Amino acid sequence: MSTPHQAQLVNQALSVPRMATYERAIVGETDYLPVAALDLYDWNAQVSGAFMAPLHICEVVIRKAVSDALTAVYGAQWPWSPVFEASLPSPSVGFNPRRDLQRNRAAQPTTGKVIPELKFIFWQKMFTSRHDVRCGPPI
User: Fold this and answer.
1) I need a surface site. Which of 2, 31, 96, 98 has the fewest CB within 10 A?
2) DSSP-assigned letters across all residues of the chain
3) Exposed, middle or buried: residue 43 (CB in 10 Å: 0-12, 13-18, 19+)?
4) What is the pLDDT of residues 77-115, one digit of tens each?
5) Are 19 and 37 in contact, with CB atoms under 8 Å apart?
6) Which domain holds residue 12?
7) What pTM, to 2 d.p., does this model score?
């Protein structure tokens, strides 16, 4: 359990508006609102942290599955395939998958080195219908 002094220091460090969210969540449950809010904030941080390992594994599995599908269609050197590159959108605003691929393959010598450097949104965008014809629908 936190102390009132710790709660005050955290409120100052994180910001009163941020901690107010946690205080609103526990109004009426305790007389020690700042302390209980800090305890709730701490619990939330621990729960969020517990999701990091499963999310990491999920991301690695998704990258591998997409890479395997791309390898089946474009070959082992798919990051350097002009046909694959042309299949990627290149919007002038927002995330640009083609630019992400170009930047990362220029800096890396192998497909295995390119894969972890691509942003997660790159892999997410591979699950859009534009890639269904070439790589098949998501499984």
Assistant:
1) 31
2) ---HHHHHHHHHHH-HHHHHHHHHHTTTS-S-HHHHHHHHHHHHHHHHHHTHHHHHHHHHHHHHHHHHHHHHHH-TTGGG-HHHHHHS---SSS--HHHHHHHHHHH-SSHHHHGGGS-HHHHHHTTSGGGHHHH-S--
3) exposed
4) 999 999 999 999 999 999 999 999 999 999 999 999 999
5) yes
6) 4-50
7) 0.72
The residue with tokens 């007389």 is 31
Burial of 126 (0-12, 13-18, 19+ CB in 10 A): buried
Domains held by the chain: number: 2
Question: Which residue, chain included where needed, has tokens 């499984």?
Answer: 139
Burial of 105 (0-12, 13-18, 19+ CB in 10 A): buried
- The answer on 70 and 46 residing in a single domain is no
